[in-house]
User: Fold these one by one.
Assistant:
Number 1:
Amino acid sequence: MSLRKIFLSVFSLLALLLIWQVLATSLNSYTFPAPMLVVKVFWQACLTGQLPYHLGVTLLRLIVSFSIAMLLGCAIGIALGRKRDLDVFFDNWLVVFLNVPALVTIILCYVWFGLVESAAILAVVVNKLPNVIVTIREGTRTLDQDLMDMAKSYRLSKRKIFFEVIWPQLHPFMMGATRTGIALIWKIILVVELLGRSNGMGYQLHLFFQMFDVASILAYTLAFVAVIQLIEILILKPLDQRALRWRR
Amino acid sequence: MASVSLVNINIVKKNFPAVSQATEHLAIIDFNLNIRSNEFVCLVGPSGCGKTTLLNIISGLDQNFEGEITIGSASVKSKIGYVFQNPRLLPWRTVRENVELVLDRFQNASLIDQLLEVMQLTKFQHVYPERLSLGMSRRVGIIRAFAVNPDLLLMDEPFVSLDPPTARQVRDLLMVLWQNRPHTVLFVTHDLREAIFLADRLIFLSAAPMGVVTEITVPIVRADRENDQAIESFRQKLLNDYPAIKQLL
């Protein structure tokens, strides 16, 4: 990255902070705290262990539901992409599930299975799954038949065909599903927690809302944004670079 | 025939059934071919006559036909090396990794080294295919096919759309490789000069439905084939003796 680019991005962040500070000072309202106050609240919440605990719980739910949705979604997506009849049969189901509002799934899961952890996870998975299936199905349809023929004529094992021939072709679709997946899931998880859990970010935000504690709401939000950015920088980007190292 | 046939190809019928607008297409009818061990056979025929279809049947990719293919002894699963027209390398694997892909876990590293050496690709073994020229990619395809030590080597116009000097270079390299490590080869081309240069035996094929028009053993000894004059005069003689061939080229 050029120096100019770094300068610009730092400058834009500072500008955002400055606007925030100016607005907060001029409004001078309890419901619009200044940046410094948010940082202070953030620090205190860290010290008491409240923020790390609730953030951790939410992250754990994110990891579990994300993993289940991705694994199931890949398996089903590949199957639908390769078998025409299956695809035609399940296409309508997909359309229905894609269009059921997240809130409806969440409420139904809680009503049917009770206010339990598994119902919460299930609600998130059901929301995310159709998305993954559609993305991976599209990826599977674009698989290069020439390469498959090559693999078959050389009698490669099923394992080799999957990991060395098919998987690298699906990689861009996987990364797409992962990125949109994380963005979608963490928003849904907060609603799930708000409606039926007694810990996690969503639960905390609910409490702060009742007390009009905007500083805490912003502190938790910043923490979450930072964590998602870290996942992108520390996990997703390196994965991308490794998988695409052959590109010119 | 003096030596035992290694490859017996007997295709009674191969057709592509009618799909929506397209009518049924009869691709191959009554096709018989026996190839001796380590024989280099060239199939020469017009484009669209069903040569690729034939290779796909022999390689086992297309099992939807009437007839029988036997390669080597029936008790052992035969190994096929297939050099495709488009090299079909995996772009995310380097040259060497592409060759290693088709080998077992207990692969012979020194064999790969030797093949790379003969094909003059040692320097490029850790390069990704995107950086290779077409001629180089084709050479990698040939290495990959030789590396499995195949019972039968199928080559589907591997030099098409290369510029003449490059095509000639790759052809010469192929000959060096083949003479060092003889294999049974079935080579498809529509270039008669190329076929005469490479083959022990030429099989001329008709347009679809494909059948054998005539077959000719190339009498020129290998040592004389570098001589373009010898190739050209044999070509002229063929065209004079078998006027039917002209229509197939």
Number 2:
Amino acid sequence: MTELLQHLVNGVSLGAIYALIALGYTMVYGVLKLINFAHGDVFMLGAMVGWYASARWTNEARDPSIAGALAVTLLAMVVCGTVGFVIERAAYRPLRGSPRINSLITAIGVSFFLEYGGQYLFGPNPRAFGVLPHRANFIGGGISVGYVDLVTIGTSIVLMALLQRIVFHTRMGTAMRAVSWNPSVAALMGVNIDLVISFTFVLGSSLAAVAGILYASKYPSVHPLMGLMPGLKAFVAAVLGGIGNVPGAMLGGLLLGLAEQLVSGYTSSSWRDAVAFSILILILLVKPSGLLGRTDAEKV
Amino acid sequence: MTLLELSNVDVHYGAIQALKGISFKVDEGEIVTLIGANGAGKTTTLRAISGMLKPSRGSIKYRDEEVSGFKPHRLVARGLCHAPEGRGIFPNLTVRENLMLGAFLRRDQQGIEKDLERGFALFPRLKEREKQMAGTLSGGEQQMLSIARALMSSPKLILLDEPSLGLAPTLVEAIFATIQQINKQGVTVLLVEQNAHLALSIAHHGYVLETGSVVQSGKGEELLRSPDIRKAYLGE
Amino acid sequence: MAGFFGGSAVKRAWRGLRSWIPFFAAIPFLYLVEATLASQPSLEYAFQNINHIGIAIILAVSLNLVNGLTGQFSIGHAGFMAVGGYVSAVMLMRGPAQDPYRLFFVLSILAGAGAAAVAGWIVGKPSLRLRGDYLAIVTLGFGEIIRVIIENTPFFGGAIGLSPIPHRADFTWIWATAVATILIAKRLRDSSHGRAFLSVREDEVAAEAMGIDTTAYKVRAFVISAFFAGVAGALSGAFEGNLAPQSFTFVRSFEIVAMVVLGGMGSITGATIAASVLTILPEYLRALANLRMVIYSVALVVLMLVRPRGLLGTTELWDFVRRRRPRAKGKREATEALIDVRRASIRFGGLTAVSDFSLEVRPRELVALIGPNGAGKTTVFNLLTGVYPPSDGTIVIMGRDTRGLQPHAIAHLGVARTFQNIRLFRELSAFDNVRIACHHLTRESMGAAVRHGELSVVEERWIAERSEELLEIMGLSHRLEELAKNLPYGEQRRLEIARALATGPQVLLLDEPAAGTNTREKGELMQLIRSIRDRFGVAIVLIEHDMRLVMGVSERILVLDHGVTIAQGLPREIQSNPKVIEAYLGEKYAKEHFGSGAAS
């Protein structure tokens, strides 16, 4: 029982990170119908910026402060937001309206660019990561909860609540939703499509930056290919919840984190990568629109 | 005073030229209609005006400003609103939410409330269905919603694309009566219609489009009497 | 008798062999190269690269079948390669130590390729109904799952991999296989089946309407492609002497995708060239080491932005070499009782688009369907062609209840259509558009197409002649090689009619054929519709807004409004029907029409 609870706690913590990344996928898909493959690498970039910043600002020997961690995270959000903005402008905007396969290939190309660019600048080897203050684990009833896990869960809840607020209760959020339903009609209502799309990329990318820092704190290392697997899995989470659907991404992330943690807890951790993809294939075959998604029929 | 003027506008879809040097103008306070067969370029013309398409050549002047190639939202901000063909309502939003989206660029709460009331006064049916999902409305009600939503941006010029599309004859008459009413309230109307008769009978001016060009123009009643028009569009 | 059979068998065997002459001709050449050059130590490294190129070509050409020709997006090719490689390697490592004629090696390749093909079928069958991005993700997920399974299976060497695998593959074997792969891909592409693949890429709805079972073709492309990926995997293992799961990641799959994209989606020549370039390029970029992949990815993005169709587009080397078209002939007889719709209704959500619709079409009849926009006319066509199943009622075509039939099956029954918004295969020539529509009338198997079997040659000739004839009737002879998208609007409409006729229909459904044509063209169209009926003996159902055309050609008219049939009868009756005037023709118009009618 305690073992199960332990796995659940870990699963929620991992799921929260997946959910944060998945939100970026799902929002971009919502407004642009594009799978932004580079999103996982923006996540990696967030962690990397965190590493550089903390290496410069904080003394390795000393315990990093909360204020320092916040500053580092903010910087990572700004950098990733900017990168997201640039990626959309330079690589995706010129292809708007062309076949989706082209955009997909471009997205994969951008993803490779970030990975190998990172490898060139950063070197291929993992480096230790420590942005958060060191605190002892909370232990109670046989369950040990890491400080990082608590911060992760707390941060994710705050960010998701904030996002919910933005998407459903602001003008920009209204515009985002309008664009995802029907871009051309939204434009006729006075919505500036380009602005909305840019905003979506910035928002999604800065969430990915936070996720990157949390993930790198949880598994305390950073390397250029670290975005690959979490990125793909977050995408699976987005599809699971129903791509284009914001609450769906949160739900999907959480479920995927739990499933993965349970499988690696009770069988072997080497199978955890297979779990995500099996879930993905299953959901696509059974309900391609995802748990909370809606279906649209093609007009002939 | 001329509100909108197109001169020699070309539009291409890839290799296909959809508009070939279209020129016409709309004076303030008028109802102007574009008629013609399917594929003649009526909808394309409206799309070019509202910025959904970029003309490859020619000029579009709106209130003495060159607006060709502007994005739609900039035109909405200038009081030019387009109620698209096929209505383009948001089916998963309520009627009220749809209407509020029409006022997306406005910040004057009182003005918005006033226009909302005006919309409901023009289309009492919408008031009854205020909280209903727009997707559950009938075709006629959706058409009403589309027009009412366009009015929410408090436009000077409204572009209506086939408002009679798929509506029962009685409803069509009601919609056209409302269009005249809107026009009397000071909104200039550019109307694209399949039902040439009805359109010409309420229009001050009409232009006839054929394969992407204006082939004839004149006062509404004049065109209605023209034997050519009767032959070409009324199937004699 | 025996002599007769024997002779025929010899003849057939000879024909089968003859079609492989290019392949057999290559072998001695390859062997000679191997014997004289490959054994020299100074060239060892060069030959290693050359062999890598050969394997890359097999991979790229086979993936091109799915991504390029069929337009489905698979990014899990490395997974199939792994399946083939591992199955073959396991056999080789447990097989006989000596394999003099390498028969056992061939067997192991076939086993590996077969396993990969089965894997392809398992993945493809359920997932190919997904489109674009979703399919890409499933194939990616599948590729990763295969890798994880291998990593966790001690039998396959786990994460360390398999080694040593007997070195059975050498230059001759690899390149002979590469030549065979190219040959097969080319013949497949040039055959009627190849055009069926292309039609899936261009427009699935239109392809179904032309009688092509799009799902089946997607699965076939996928299975064939997986088969060759398996071959490449087997060769790769037997050449390198070891296999490790790390070499079959998503990155590997993507390299193959890049070759296909870079070469030009659909071009076999392009895939071959790109496979060669992308394999050697890293060797030359070695000096740049880490920047290598950065340059690679930037190049890919730039290429997509600048040349979205790849470097060569769909152009092939042999397009420049020969221009020869085979010829033949054919005709089909009309039978009776063509379409019988009884009280069909269809609802979308809560909305009833068409209700209680009944229609009987007899041979050689000209029926028009009119009504205001949104009245449900096109929906009726979609019901007749099986795009939507009716919610209620029955649709019987050629005496057969069409419940549960896919659009392609209904096309086979003899119903062809055009589309309101023109759905040609835009990137294909006018000639190919028509040839695709002939496909379902042919019987040749894919194997025969690859072998250049007798029947396939005759059929190909027949298709060509039939297509040329149809294009001539439609006045499009001069546009034979023009891409459909470059034709003027009116000619595109006529090409659509030619394409529909090519399926050999007994009923032709025309959806607003006069839309966007001018008065003169409308007059010509009226003539054309009549002559089509007389010449091909088909019945025609017409949706049209142009009253002159409708009244001019149709023998019977149905009027729809809000999905309800409000009137039907002779043109004259319809023109004066008060309901029709109210709903569609317009009161004022009717008054004027009859005013002028009475005066004349």
